[in-house]
């Protein structure tokens, strides 16, 4: 009779154990998901790889096209949805990073900034500098005189994880100063 | 009714407490990481999961001594806290990154630990006590009733057997008495003078 009574509590205990095993599986899944998210947040990198300057002779405005190389070695897709930037241009690298050399800034949205897992993708972002603005005058100054013109971009890219839309990240962009020529 | 096999009791108690702690840890960790995983079972599970697990612990420890119910709640709280900590620190443990959000380790992890301890221990203890009381009034009372019926029938059987034995003894005594009486009569008739 005692054996039968113990069976009731043992049965509940075994059921508790089964649910605990399922919960442990859930915890493991949760931890692995969190690891993947963390890995993505820290392993994604972006670097500016090219900068091209175009001049529209009709409108007079300058187009600055920046190529960004985004490297995503993680297991999750990311989606770069905005680039926050400041563009600098000057005649020499010594004064390039000063505020007086800033020729543009703001944010630029990306329509398709998805970078799949374990891939490297080039994204191009275009900035316009129109005539009549302070930025335009600075750019004209940097380009005048026939000397070399140096450009430099500073900023960060905002991205979110494609599978986890609540998770946002920021990527600091590294873009070393480089010499540019105007393409008409 | 109370289990006294020490090692077996300890093993069962530890296993069940860890099981309950794992279940509670799953709900807590899911809540704490809801910002990332977009799966949130709701804040109410922070209350209900330790209560229900404590209730079940109370029921399954009803055959043990009362102190074991309290111990099981404490083990459950410790294990739940450890499991939540392991889950939250998984990126660090697996060597990926110290702190993906920049604030998790310094602010959120200790807060989450405190919430786990503060909520799980009293609520699970309350659930365990209620569960034990419930079990004592249902599972144990019915089993005790059955045990009493068995004892009653066994006692009745013993009485019946005793009656039978007494009857046999009585008959034997009767026989012995009759024999003794007949012997006395024989002796008396043998001692009487002839003629």
Supply the helix-strand structural class of chain B. mainly alpha
End-to-end CA span of chain A: 98 Å
Uncertain spans of chain A: none
Number of strands of chain A: 10
How many domain modules of chain A?
2
Gyration radius of chain B, rounded: 35 Å
Tell me the name of the CATH class of the largest domain in chain A: Mainly Beta
Dominant shape of chain A = rod-shaped
| Count of discrete alpha- or pi-helical segments spanning 4 or more residues of chain A | 2
> What gap, in angstroms, lies between the N and C termini of chain B?
81 Å
Specify the structural class of chain A.
Answer: alpha+beta
CATH architecture of the largest domain in chain A: Sandwich
Largest interface between protein chains, with number of residues from each side: A-B, 31 and 43 residues
Give a written overview of the molecule.
- The complex is a heterodimer of chains A (184) and B (195).
- Chain A has 184 residues and is α+β, with helices and mostly antiparallel strands.
- Chain A has helices at residues 2-43, 134-143, and strands at 45-55, 62-72, 78-90, 102-109, 114-115, 119-129, 149-161, 168-174, 178-180, 182-183.
- Helix content of chain A is 28%, strand content 44%.
- In chain A, strands 1, 2, 3, 4, 5, 6, 7, 8, 9 and 10 form a ten-stranded mixed β-sheet that branches.
- Chain A is rod-shaped, with a radius of gyration of 27 Å.
- Chain B has one domain.
- Chain B has six helices and no strands.
- In chain B, α4 (66-88) runs antiparallel to α6.
- Chain A binds chain B through residues 1, 5-6, 8-10, 12-13, 16-17, 19-20, 23-24, 26-27, 30-35, 37-39, 41-42, 164-167, and chain B through 1, 3, 12, 15-16, 18-20, 22-23, 25-26, 29-30, 33, 35-38, 53, 56, 59-63, 83, 86-88, 90-91, 94, 96-97, 100-101, 135, 139, 143, 146-147, 150.
């Amino acid at each position: 009779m005692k054996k039968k009574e113990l069976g009731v509590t043992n049965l509940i205990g075994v059921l508790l154990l089964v649910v605990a095993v399922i919960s442990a599986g859930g915890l493991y899944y949760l931890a692995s998901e969190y690891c993947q998210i963390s890995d993505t947040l820290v392993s994604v990198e972006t670097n500016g790889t090219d900068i091209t300057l175009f001049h529209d002779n009709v409108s007079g405005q300058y187009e600055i096209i920046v190529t960004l190389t985004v490297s995503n070695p993680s297991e999750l897709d990311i989606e770069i949805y905005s680039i926050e930037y400041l563009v600098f241009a000057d005649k020499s690298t010594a004064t390039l990073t000063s505020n007086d050399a800033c020729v543009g800034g703001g944010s630029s949205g990306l329509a398709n900034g998805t970078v799949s897992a374990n891939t490297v993708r080039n994204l191009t972002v275009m900035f316009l500098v129109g005539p009549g603005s302070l930025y335009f005058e600075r750019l004209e100054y940097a380009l005048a005189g026939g000397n070399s013109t140096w450009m430099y971009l500073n900023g960060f890219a905002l991205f979110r994880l494609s599978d986890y839309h609540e998770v946002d990240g920021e990527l600091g962009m590294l873009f070393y100063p480089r010499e540019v020529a105007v393409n008409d | 009714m109370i289990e006294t096999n020490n090692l077996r009791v300890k093993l069962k108690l530890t296993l069940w407490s860890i099981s309950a702690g794992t279940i509670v840890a799953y709900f807590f960790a899911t809540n704490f990481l809801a910002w990332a995983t977009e799966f949130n079972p709701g804040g109410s599970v922070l209350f209900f999961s330790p209560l229900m697990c404590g209730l079940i612990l109370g029921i399954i420890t009803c055959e043990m001594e009362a102190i074991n119910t309290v111990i099981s709640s404490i083990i459950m709280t410790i294990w739940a806290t450890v499991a939540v900590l392991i889950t939250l620190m998984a990126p660090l443990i697996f060597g990926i990154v110290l702190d993906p959000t920049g604030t998790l380790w310094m602010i959120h992890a200790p807060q989450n630990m405190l919430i786990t301890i503060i909520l799980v221990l009293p609520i699970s203890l309350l659930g365990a006590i209620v569960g034990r009381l419930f079990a004592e009034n249902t599972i144990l009372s019915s089993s005790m009733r059955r045990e009493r019926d068995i004892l009653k029938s066994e006692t009745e059987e013993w009485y019946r057997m005793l009656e039978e034995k007494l009857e046999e003894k009585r008959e034997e005594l009767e026989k012995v008495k009759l024999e003794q009486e007949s012997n006395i009569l024989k002796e008396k008739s043998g001692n009487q003078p002839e003629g």
